[in-house]
Design brief:
- By secondary structure, this protein is an alpha/beta fold.
- The chain has helices spanning 194-199, 205-219, 225-232, 240-253, and strands spanning 3-4, 9-10, 15-16, 21-22, 27-28, 33-34, 39-40, 45-46, 50-52, 57-58, 63-66, 80-83, 88-89, 94-96, 104-107, 112-113, 118-119, 124-125, 130-131, 136-137, 142-143, 148-149, 154-155, 160-161, 166-167, 172-173, 181-184, 188-192.
- The strands form 4 sheets. A 9-stranded parallel beta sheet has the order 2-5-8-11-14-17-20-23-26, with no helix packed on it. The chain has an 8-stranded parallel beta sheet with strand order 1-4-7-10-13-16-19-22, with no helix packed on it. It has an 8-stranded parallel beta sheet with strand order 3-6-9-12-15-18-21-24, with no helix packed on it.
- Helix 2 packs antiparallel against helix 3 and helix 2 (205-219) runs parallel beside helix 4 (240-253).
């Protein structure tokens, strides 16, 4: 049976695995699911339509599955938050459920969410993401795997941040950020995340060489992003990392509607 503190309020419509631990003054609403090995600290609120996989740790004052911060949203609309496994949510994390009927805000596996971090409605957050204190991914934003948002970073709605991007503290972005890069300030591309690329055991030397070449074509060759993409399309032996960079660029260049945004521009006077 789950271990539930006597002061917690658990709706009978919540599905809770047998080994879950729920601390003092928690609230778990109906139509929720908490997977095996999860632990809720004191005063955690799990709102309706929130589903968590196994092994998540949720610290004090978190609110997971809160209503979207959208004035047009009807609270009676069934929308969801779907959380993977092995995440750590520190104090005061908030994650909003989606806006469209049947839609979901999706959180991957093995993330580390520091105090006060936030994911807005309809956001998609990849695996092994680190959200430092006070960071926020707005509605419909996407963060790829292994993204690191340093403290105070803000991602605008409808923006895509590619895998292994790392930001400087207090950065802000209203554009799409290609994978494997370092970014700073407001929409400022610094260069490649070279240290991250070297440390990732899944990235080979040839991967790194091709990613560097792809970045050079995009930012240093003097040609448009479209022409850079066309040149990458001629590569006959493209490796997985460079291929993911190329497809991110293609996605940006073919985006429609509110996702049609610029690629993050180069900040001059930097090295990479």
């Amino acid at each position: 049976m789950p271990t539930i503190h006597s002061t917690a309020i658990i709706d009978s419509g919540a599905k809770i695995a047998d080994d879950v631990k729920i601390g003092p003054f928690c609230i778990v609403e109906a139509d929720t699911e908490i997977g095996p090995g999860c632990e809720l600290g004191p005063q955690v609120i799990i709102r309706r339509y929130t589903f968590m996989g196994e092994g998540n740790s949720v610290d004090a004052f978190c609110v997971l599955g809160g209503l979207p911060q959208d004035l047009k949203f009807d609270p009676a609309t069934p929308t969801y938050v779907r959380i993977g496994k092995g995440n750590r949510f520190r104090e005061g994390v908030t994650i909003s459920r989606a806006t469209k009927p049947g839609g979901a805000t999706v959180i991957g596996d093995l993330g580390y969410w520091m105090a006060g971090s936030h994911a807005g409605h309809d956001a998609t957050i990849g695996d092994n993401v680190i959200m430092a204190n006070g960071t926020a991914a707005a509605g419909h934003a996407t963060l790829g795997d292994r993204v690191i948002l340093s403290g105070g970073t803000m991602i605008h709605q409808f923006c895509w941040v590619g895998e292994m991007v790392m930001t400087q503290g207090n950065a802000g972005f209203s554009c799409h950020v290609p994978p494997f890069t370092l970014v700073a300030d407001i929409n400022g591309m610094i260069g490649l995340n070279s240290i991250g690329l070297r440390r990732n055991p899944q990235i080979t030397d040839e991967d790194r060489r091709q990613v560097k070449q792809a970045f050079h074509l995009t930012y240093d060759s003097g040609q448009t992003a479209g022409k850079a993409l066309a040149e990458m399309d001629t590569w006959t032996d493209i490796k997985p990392a460079a291929s993911r960079y190329r497809e991110f660029l293609r996605k940006v260049l073919t985006a429609e509607g509110p996702f049609r945004r610029a690629l993050c521009p180069l900040r001059r006077g930097r090295g990479h």
